[in-house]
Each structure stands twice: as structure tokens, then as C-alpha cells.
Amino acid sequence: MQEQLIEKVFESQNDNLIAGTRHPLDAKIISVAGGTEYKRGMVLSKAEDGTYFVLGTAEKTGDVSCIVSENLNAKEIASDQYVALEVYISGEFRASCLITEQSHVITDAEEEILREKGIFVK
Fold first, then answer.
1. Which burial class, exposed, middle or buried, applies to 63 when counting CB atoms under 10 A from its CB (0-12, 13-18, 19+)?
2. In terms of Cα–Cα distance, which of 43, 49, 118 is closest to 82?
3. Residue 54: beta bridge partners?
4. Dist. CA 84–CA 102, nearest whole Å
5. 33: how many CB neighbours lie within 10 A of its CB?
6. What is the DSSP pairing of strand 72-73 with strand 52-54?
7. Where are the beta strands (DSSP E) in 42-104?
């Protein structure tokens, strides 16, 4: 009897989010509230209380912080519970692939904050 020793655990697809390799790509894990579906390329801001939210969310303010690296459906998790989410904290990203709330367009000031953090929008 043959035994399968290799199992496919991850499959990467080219989605054009990464725009280049001149600046190093780095990621980290953050805690985010449940009740939201996080999509690869979503731009997150960090509020003064340390919580993260999608850039452009009405009535929320904070500094642009990071970009979601992998899809995570946390809709079934209560909004008062937190889950781990991997995000990019540096690298080069294609502007056309970035996701914000509603029809928010990343401003020059927001792009400058991202640049200061090592995130370059092309």
C-alpha cells in the first residue's frame, strides 16, 4: 500500500498586489475584531485605542497602518472577540489592488504615512 507523504497545504495565486521587490516585504500578526471579512489588499488604520479598522470607515479616525496579506472571514466571530490576522508592514504594493471602505480613495497624506512606515504604493 502506498502512502501519500506530500500534502498540498497552501496555494499562492498571482493577484498583482505586490508591485515590486526593491523594498523588503515584511509581515506580522495583529489582533482584529470579529464580525468583519478581511480581504487580501485591504488597507487598515489603527485607532488611538489600538483597534484596527478598514481605511475609510465612517466616523473612525486613526493612522494608516498596514495591508492585509491573506483573506480571513471573521464574520461569524462576535465583534467583541479578537482573531489573529497576518498583515504586511512593508513592501511595494499596486494602488489598483488596494481595498478601502466604500469609495474612499487613498489621499496623498495617507500615502505619505504609509511611505514613512515602509509601505510604498505604486
1. middle
2. 49
3. 44
4. 24
5. 17
6. unpaired
7. 43-46, 52-54, 63-68, 72-73, 82-93
pLDDT tens-digit profile of 38-78? 999 999 999 999 999 999 988 888 889 999 999 999 999 99
Residues 25, 84: Cα–Cα separation, whole Å: 19
Measured CA to CA, the distance from residue 107 to residue 33 in angstroms comes to 25
Rounded distance, CA 41 to CA 15, Å?
Answer: 10
Burial class (CB in 10 A: 0-12, 13-18, 19+), 45: buried
Record the cell numbers describing residue 78, joined without a space.
462576535
Residue type, 44: L
| Vertex 27 angle, CA 109 and 33, to 5° | 80
3-state secondary structure of 40: coil
How many CB atoms within 10 Å of residue 8?
Answer: 5
